[in-house]
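BUG: 3D viewer hangs when loading the predicted structure for this chain

Environment: internal workstation, default settings.
Expected: structure renders.
Actual: progress bar stalls at 90%.

Input used:
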Amino acid sequence: MKLKLYYRLDCHLCEDMYQLIQPYLSEYDIELEMLNIDKHKVLQDRYTSLIPVLTDHLDNEICHYFFDKVSFEKFLSNKIG
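C-alpha cells produced before the viewer hung:
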C-alpha cells in the first residue's frame, strides 16, 4: 500500500505526524511518499493551509493537521479487511 505525506520543513505538526505513522509502515507494508509542498507551486496552493496532509495513493485525504488514529485505522481496516 502506498500513502503520501504532504509536509513542510521545520513544521512541528508534520514531524509529529511522520513520527506517529512510523509504527504502521512496516506492520502494514506501507510505502510512504514524502512530498515537500514548498518545492511545488501547485502543492503549495492546494495544501498550504492544511499541512501536514496524509493521503492514499489517489490523494484521498485520510487526515490533516494532526494524525487522526481513529480515521487512519478505519482507512486501514477498509483496505485490509
